[in-house]
User: Fold RNA polymerase-associated protein RapA from Desulfosarcina ovata subsp. ovata.
Amino acid sequence: MFDFVPGQRWSSEMEPELGVGIVDAVDGRRVHLRFPDSGLLRIYAAHSAPLQRAVFHPGDRVTGENGAALTVSRVETVDGLTVYHGDGMRLTEDRLVGTPALDTPKARLLAGQRDLSSHFDLRRRILDYRCRMTGAAAQGFIGGRVELIPHQFAIAAEVASRRFPRVLLADETGLGKTIEAGLVLHRLVFTGRIHRALLIVPDALVVQWFVELARRFNLQFRIFDEETIPATPAPTPPTVDNPFAEEPLGLCGFSFVRQASPAVQERLLDGQWDMVVVDEAHHMQPGDPLFKRIQRLGRRAPRMILITATPGHLAARSHFARLRLLDPHRYGDYERFKTESATFGELARMARMLDGRSEIDPAAQARLGRLLDMPPAGLKAELNREAGRQKLMHLLIDRHGTGRVMFKTTRRTVTGFPGRRAHLIALDPDAADDADRRRLSRECLDDGRDDKAGLPVDFTADPRVAWLDGYLRAHRDAKILLICRTAHKVNALYDALDRRINAPIGRYHEQMTLVQRDRNAAWFADPQGATLLLCSEIGSEGRNFQSARHLVLFDLPWDAELLEQRIGRLDRIGQTGVVQVMVPYVRGTGGEVLARWYHEAMGAFEATVPASGWVMQRMRKVLMALIDNPAGPVDPVRLNRIIRSSRVAVSRQQRRIDTGRDCLLELDALPPDRVAELLDRIRAVDGDPCFQELIEPLLDIWGITMEPLADGAFRLTPDHRYANPLPGFRPSGMNVTLDRSLALAREDLGFLTWDHPLVTGAMDQYLGSGKGSTAFSHVPGNGVPEIFLEMLFVIESTAATDPFVSAFLPPAPIRVVVDHLLRDGSAALPDSTGMADGSAKRFARLLPVVSRLIPDMVAAGQSIAEETAKPVIAAARQNAHQTMNDTVSRLQTLSRVNAAIGQAEIDEAIGDRDAVLAAMDAATVRLDALRLVTRGDFP
Assistant:
C-alpha cells in the first residue's frame, strides 16, 4: 500500500493519457487525484491504486508558485513529499507550477534500459488490437456468455449506440429481455461509456440477477439491502461517506427502494448513477412510492432501461407514465398519446408502403409530406431510392409512431422455439357432490381477488392432488414445475403430497428468504435434485426454469398476461424440448371455465396471444358470474356461448394489434443485414487464432501459464512470478475455454475473450508498465553497417478518456522507421523478420554514439507520424460531424412537431458535437515505444 500525502504527484498506469495527477485528499481507504491536464478527478482504492510516482530528475528545470525556477541538482523525500534542490533554492512538489514530465521511451533508451524484442512486438500487437477493437461494432458484445441470437443483438446494438439511451424493453415472454439489458450494460461499461449503474429488480430476482451478470458478463455487482445498508440508519453528519458511492455497480430489490428512509433515499439519489435499470417495471404504478422514487432516480440518471412485460394492452395510462419517465419530451401529454395511438394503424400501412417497392399514389404522398414536413420534390427524390424509402420509414415511425423509446420483439418474428403442448385433464370429485364443486369454484373466484391471503386450504382429498400423485409416479425422471397462486397453497400442496408419495419436492414462495428460494431453485436445476418444485406466483416473475419441460398449472390466474408469464418460465429461448402444459381441473367448477376459456377461446396454453389481456379485461365479470352459481355446477351451454363470442373478440383485437403498434415496432427494428454483419464480426473474433497467440505470451509475462486440457479447455495456473493481481483471475487457478459453444455448454469453464477482464487487465497493465517500450535488435545484412530507429506512435485526442470521442478516433498506432541519416526506413525494415535481440555488449558500445543520433531520429519520426495521422484524424472528424449533426437535426425536426422539445436540449446536443470536434482538432501523436535496430557488420 502506498503512503499518499496531499500535494504528491502521481500518474495512472492504466490511463497515462490523463497526465500527472495531484493528490487532493486522502480519506482512509480512498485517495482523490486531480488531473489538471484533462480536468478530471479520479478516486482510487488506496491499497490497490494503479499509480506510479511522478518526479523530476537532476538536470530537469522546475518552477515554483512564486515564479522562481531552478535546475534540479538533488532530490530527497520529506514527510512523504518530494523536495527538489538546486541553484541555492529548495522547492517541495506541492509548490510546483505544472506537473513533471513522465518517463518516456526515449529517456529509458538513452538510460540504457531495454526489453526483449519479443516484448516490443507484443506491445505493438496489443496496440494494434486495441485500435481495432476500440469503437468497433463488436466491442463489448464479444464477452457475453450468450448465444448469438439476432433480435437480442439488434436491440442491444441500437440501444448501446445512443449516447444517452432511455428505453423500454418489452419483448414477449421468453425472448431474452434480460440478456438484452445485460448486453447493453456490458457494452457501455466495457467501453467506458458508463462507470456507475444501479439495478432495481423484484426482491425474488435479486440473487438471480447477481449470478447472471457475473456468470454471463463478468460484471460484479454489489447487493444493497438492509443488512449492508439499513433502511433507517441512525442520523449521521453530512461529512460521512455515501455508502452507495463505494461501489460502481449496485443491485437492490423493490422493497429496499420502497421502504428506504428519507436519508437513505437522498443518499441513493446522490449516487451519481450513469444508468438505472428497472426489471419487471410493469409492477410500478403511478402514485406508488416505488414509482415516485424511481422517477426521481430517472431524472438524475442520464440513461435508463425499463424491462417490462407486454405493455399497453391494458393499463394505457400506466404504460404512458413509464414512457414519460423515459422520454418526457416525446411523451408530454396523455391525450396526445391516445390520439397518436389511434393512428398507429394508418401509420403502419404507410410504413409498409415505404418498406415495399410499389408505387405510392399522389394522395398518400401528400399525406406523407405533411407528416414528415418535407417538400414534394425532396420527398419524391427519397421515394425513388430504396435507401431513401427506408430513411423515410424510420423518420415516420420516429416522429409519429413509437419513437425511439420502446422495443418489442414478438414470437412470430423469432424462430427456434420447440413449441408447447396443452393437456387439459378433466377430473370428477370423488363423491361428485355439489359441496366439493362449490368449494373449488369458490377457490377459483378467490384467486381473482387482489388479497392474496385467501381462504384456508386443505388439499388432502383434492382430486387434482390425486392426479398429481399419479403423474409424479409416471414421470420420476422428469423435472416438473408446478405454479399456483399463493404460498398458502404451496405449503398445503406440500403437506398433501408428503402424505401420499416419497419424492424429492422443493418449495419456492414469498414467505421464504432469498437464500432459501435460490437454494431450492438450484436444487431443482440439479439433475440429481428435486423432481418437483412447487412455486407460488412469485415463480412467474422473471425466474428461468427451462431445465424442466413439464409445467403443471394447479390453478389459473385471472390475468391472461400472467398466464403467459407462467408458461414463459419454461417456454423460452434455450428450451430444448416441447413444453408439456398440464392443466388439471374438476368438471363443473370454475377451474373448467378458465381452462376451457383460455384454451378454446384464446389458444393461450399453446401460443402467445397478445390480445388475450384486452379480452380478459372485458370478459372477466361475465366469467365470474358464470362461476358464481350456488345452485349447482357451471352451465355448459352458457360456457360454450361465452367461448364463441370471446373467440371473435380475440380475432378482431389481434388484427388491430398486428396492424398497429406491433407492426411499427417490427418495421423499426435494426435491418437484418446490419445484425448479420455484427454477428459475423463477433464470430470472426471468436474464431481468430491470433487471440490465443497473443494471450498465451501475455499471461506468461505476468506469471500465468496456459496449459491445454481436453476438448478445447485450458488450465490457467499462477507460478512463482505471479505478483500483480489481475482482474477476473482466481489466484488458485481456473479452467477456461476460448470456444463460445463450449462455454455455453459448461458453466464450470470461464469464457476467455477479448472482452474478459483478465485479458483487458493484462493488456492494460502491460501498456501501463512500460514493458516492451524499448528494445535493441540486430538484423544480419550485406556488410554495410546501418542504424535504424523503429518508433511506435499512438494517435490521441485531448479527450482520450471520452469513449464517445474514441469511438470515432480510436488510439491508432503508427509505425515509423528512420535510419541514421534521418531517412524513412520503413521499406528497408518492413517488419521484424530476421530480428534477434542484440547483445548487451554491443548495446553498451553503441549507446554513446546513438545517444547523439536518437533525439534527431525521434524528431524526424515525429514529423512523419504527424503527417501520417492527418488524414486519419480528418476522416474521423468527418464521421463524427455527420453522426452528431444527424442527432441535432432530429431534435430540431422533432421540436417542430412536439412543443415539449425545447431549445435547451438542442443546444446541449450542439455543445456535445462541438466538444467532440474540438477534441479531434487538438489530436496529437504520442511516442509509445522505441526499438533500436542495427543491420550489417558491427564490431
Observations:
- Residues 334-402 form one domain.
